Amino acid sequence: MKVLKFGGSSIGSVESILSVKRIVEAQTEPVIVVVSALGGITDQLIRTSQMAVEGNLDYQTSYEEIAQRHFNLMEAVIPAGEALASLKDEINAMLNELHSIYQGVFLIRDLSPKTLATVVSYGERMSSRIVTTLISGSQWRDSREFIKTERQGSKNILATEVTYSLVRDTWAEIPPISVVGGFISTDKDSGEVTNLGRGGSDYTASIIAAALDASVLEIWTDVDGFMTADPKVIQTAYTIPELTYIEAMELCNFGAKVVYPPTIYPVCVKNIPILIRNTFNPDSGGTIIKSRVKDDSRSIKGISSIKGTSLITVAGLSMVGVIGVNRRIFSCLAENGISVFMVSQASSENSTSIGVRTEDCEEACRVLNEEFEKEIEDGRMFRMQYESGLATVAVVGENMKHTPGIAGKLFGTLGRSGISVIACAQGASETNISFVINEKFLRKALNSIHDSFFLSEYKEVNLFICGVGTVGGSLLEQIHLQQEKLMRELRIKLNVVGIASSRKAMFRREGLSLVDFRQQLQQAPESNIHRLREEVIGMNIFNSVFVDCTASAEVAGLYKDFLNHNINVVAANKVAASSDYKNYRELKHIAQTRGVKFLFETNVGAGLPIIRTINDLVNSGDKILRIEAVLSGTLNFIFNTISKDIPFSETVRMAKAEGYSEPDPRIDLSGKDVIRKLVILTREAGYEIEQEDVEAKLLIPDSFFAGSLDDFWKNLPSLDADFEARREALERNHRVWRFVAKYEDGHGSVSLQEFDQSHDFYGLKGSNNIVLLTTERYNEYPMLIQGYGAGASVTAAGVFADIMSIA
Ligand code: ADP
Ligand code: ASP
Ligand code: MG
After folding, report:
1. Taking a C-beta distance cutoff of 8 angstroms, is the pair 614, 625 a contact?
2. From the candidates 677, 697, 714, 765, which is the catalytic residue?
């Protein structure tokens, strides 16, 4: 004999309830089917009572919706005829009773726990009648007659012995199919309607399975089994094929809603396995929970969490070594029906932190203050203090006890995500490490832990892309093209969670579609720097990277905040790395102490590995003695393109059109861009330098930099004749122009120089860049890095490489 429990999620819709019918009718041995109320109905029954007691007439509409949902479902799944007619009469009668109760509540504005228990009982009473009529040959049993509770403090708990004996009487003979409403019960003495607590249908099923020694308890729900974490929070969670009772109990106690915690004990004692299965996907294997499971190399099995946690601190000087304080704390809480789900006590024993549900917190403080009234009065102890708005997370797995370093890895992961742990506890059984954090970090904490412990599935990296110009746009296209391959081959999921232009921004935690991001962005809300900051920080998403493909100083001004919030920064934007030395150092320092990355490889030489190479040299103990480089793709393009037929002004125009130059080409022509690059390289080589320290020999007159961009374009051709004269002379001497940046002996400079064929810089083509590094090790023959130094796609590829190095 089996017990099958179907949750609200399995009988909420026409499709799902028909699936229940198929599953039950296909069984080959006797089954007892336990059902919940239609999905969401219990909540609505409660909400409606609240409206009524508050005198809100909307309770009428809400009641009508409840009635309508039941009628719609019945009519959709049960063929017209006698059975349907009599079922409708029955449901109608119950609904009329329910309506009268609501009216009473409305009139006298009183909703006692007893009335509320009666109200919610209609959910399972109605659903179980509907399912009985739906499933051919099934017999209904009234759970109010055999599931009995008794009072303990303010709570109703199962009256185990009477219940077991009544269950056995009820099923002295076991018909092929019985149907029972879960959750509801009656008081063993007064006969008043009670229930087993929210989610209690699982428990009803477990009690029946245990009392009747069922071969298995099957819990049918809306997910493929017990998963590594709540799939509604962690998209990458996956089904755990096998769990021990202890592991399941730990996970459920800490909020894995898939099974109501008290469910496990009755069947565990009888060694009856629990099978979790998906009503919507009956062919998937699901999860089996039993006492022994196959060896699994994974150190932890699952993560669960509870929101709405408060932490009470019981502290005082007298507590040191005083025997009995703990006994008093826990008995006093237990006597008042307050459950404690976490305790952490420092070995100094002068403070104990107790995790309770927030709704119990005030009461808990009150009773503890009362218990320790004398000690508080004479100053040996402090009044209870508490902190709310917290969440408790549990990391569970029986293998933890054989694996050293789990706690280290766990807390390291949290630290890197910028999450501080307020209290933590690990029992000697080592199957559970639980800790308390601020609730606003919960999602991030769960994601980071899941990511670092369940690597077998995939690693997620969440990207904010700011700037959708040539580089940003090209980056998004490259990501779009690579996404699938990275997922398949490297198990890395690049999730673009935000895209912003200077005017618009869109964000989506689950990831934006990159197919038509430009159109989407057009329809996205207006944005500005403040919103950008709020959204990126506010999303508080784990493993996140802010990618700056703008040239904006305002955006660069956000890095510090982002790094401080443990968001990695990848910048194509040169502003930050070339800003004040102090700011540059500070950003690098924050990144280092926070364990995140601040990368800007493309600031110099687009995708060429220049900064990385300098870092590698320096880190391995080499010393950079001289840097000589042609770093402006734009200037190089200009001086390689200029000819008898193409005047200077035209080459500038072309550089802009090809996407080599900065949006304002004057930044390139003034040498400013090269100065910034030289500053960045020099700093990465380990020297302190500011932009002002670099000596700049300009190649066009000062006046060109003063006016507007329009004036600039208009006046530019006036330089053509002079350039042509100089160019001709140069050509005659077989020489070329290169705009060179140089650092040596504490001195930096940029200038236009002439080179003949004997020099490495002579043959430089198109917009290419070249860097010569003379170091202690590469001395006689300097190291040479050369290649495309500008262009949207190579720059985007360089940014992509920075992102991948973080991933
Ligand atoms: P039912 O109506 O069938 O009783 P519940 O909503 O009570 O269903 O429980 C199923 C839900 O539990 C899932 O939809 C899922 O969101 C949630 N859940 C939380 N933690 C887990 C977990 N570790 N594994 C699977 N589901 C979980
Ligand atoms: N219907 C009840 C609830 O929503 C019991 C259950 O679904 O298990 O809490
Ligand atoms: Mg449930």
Report:
1. no
2. 677
